[in-house]
Amino acid sequence: MGDEPLVRWDWIARNWDNGTPYAIKALLEDHTVMAFLPVVFGLLIALPLGLACARWRVLYQPTTGLMNVIYSLPSLALFSILLSVTGLTRTTVIIPLTLFSLAVLIPAVVDGMTSVPDHVRQSAVAMGFRPLRRLLQVELPIAVPVVLAGLRVATVSSISLVSVGALIGQGGLGYLFIDGWQRQFPTPIVVGIALVTLLALVADLALILIQRWLTPWARARRAA
Amino acid sequence: MGAGEEGGVNWLVEFFGDPEHWSGPAGIPARLLQHLEFSVLAFLIAAVIAVPLGLWVGHTGRGALLVVTSANAARALPTLGLLVLVVLLIGVGTVWPVLVPLIALAVPPILVNTYEGIRGVDADLRDAAYGMGLRGRQVLFRALVPVALPLILLGLRLAAIQVVATATVAAYVGLGGLGRFIIDGLATKDYGSVFGGAVLVVLLALAVQWAFTLVHRVVVSPGVRQVR
User: Is the N or C terminus of chain B more exposed, i.e. has fewer CB atoms within 10 Å?
Assistant: First the structure.
């Protein structure tokens, strides 16, 4: 590399918001959207499926088996296979990432529901809670810590995996890796790695805060 | 693209039916062998580093915070970026620049699961082993490891899957292996090659998954399996 510095700060300043779709700021926004949509979709699908698996245990084994298989598939392979259906669009990245989120979230929802102590459930029944209200007001809140642990894993992996999409032209900050490689210029790559990691860190922190807000009793118990 | 649904099947027939894809240094067998070679090497090195370290940290409890934190951070690292950066800085003379990120990505899952496995063993069981007169190392290998084996294997499986997937991406920086079909196909708009390569990678990933299920069945003690 000769005397090329690892990071050229002036390049960052010039390209942060240069008006093109490849400005760092635009890529960061792109990346954020493409990373979060799969997690949101994943949660929306995993909640009913997970609840069904927790309710009818026979469903659980085949579902987790399938999810294990999906989780083992390389993202680039899934992107490539979907190319024939959805072309070079964002959807091609979002669908596999949604599947990966599901693979993490469905077991998390089931484990969360299993973590509800039986005496609590019985107390709720005895107090006259109907199934739906019991689910919403008793079981789901107790399941929150376990589900959120899964959500954190899904979010962080999703943020890091979006960049592979750059190989099919839809990778948010991953574009910086391709750009840096093609020009043999390390600055964009370093910026990309730093921003992806930072985004993951911020998202993880946000989820920790959400968990604290959703489970105030945990804090009270810790203080006691 | 307008390929439609038949595109996929036609591409497969075209890709797998072409005799050129079955011989020579760019053929499917050669590429598969390359892929396995890199993956196995990276996986073994990662396991040699991470398993003993995980056992040690789990058994002694030293450095646990460091292990957990670094493993979480590693999950956030973008594979493609790490790969491109390391290869750009070191150069592509040998396979080592590509192996380094592969190893770096495989170590955390093995390390954390080994650590958690040992840590999570029932304290009564540990005490009982000491009570029977076993010493530190004997307790670890005769009592803790067999009980922790399912989690250790899970870590190894996740790492192996991660390595196979990343080795696919590594074709972008010039590594051989099955990823070449995808990357070269994308570059030349030969979607038959892209699709065929992707199917091969999926099959390989499934084979790895299946191999670990088999290993699990063979090495995990039936008593431990029942508890889970």
Answer: C
The residue in chain B having the minimum alpha-carbon distance to the alpha carbon of residue A68 is B209
- Top residue of B79, B84, B193 to mutate, by most chain A CBs within 10 Å, is B84
Closest CA to A72 of A47, A96, A48, A38: A96
Mutate to test the interface with A, among B32, B80, B85 (most CBs of A within 10 A): B80
Calculate how close chain B gets to A165, using CA atoms only, in Å: 10
- Asked: is A9-223 a CATH 1.10.3720.10 domain? The reply is yes
By residue range, what is the domain housing residue B177?
27-227
CA distance B58 to B144: 10
Those residues with Cβ within 8 angstroms of residue B57's Cβ, 6 or more apart along the chain or in another chain = B63, B64, B67, B111, B115
pLDDT (tens digit, 9 = 90+) per residue, B95-128?
Answer: 777 888 888 889 988 998 899 888 888 888 888 8
- Which domain CATH number covers B139? 1.10.3720.10
Residue B18 resides in a domain: no
Q: Whole-angstrom Cα distance, residue B122 to residue B141?
A: 15
Please identify among residues 23-62 of chain A the ones whose CB lies closer than 8 Å to any CB of chain B: none
Q: B135 in a domain, yes or no? A: yes
User: Block means of pLDDT (10 residues each) for chain A, length 224 residues?
Assistant: 72 83 90 95 94 89 86 86 84 93 92 90 91 89 90 92 90 92 91 93 92 83 69
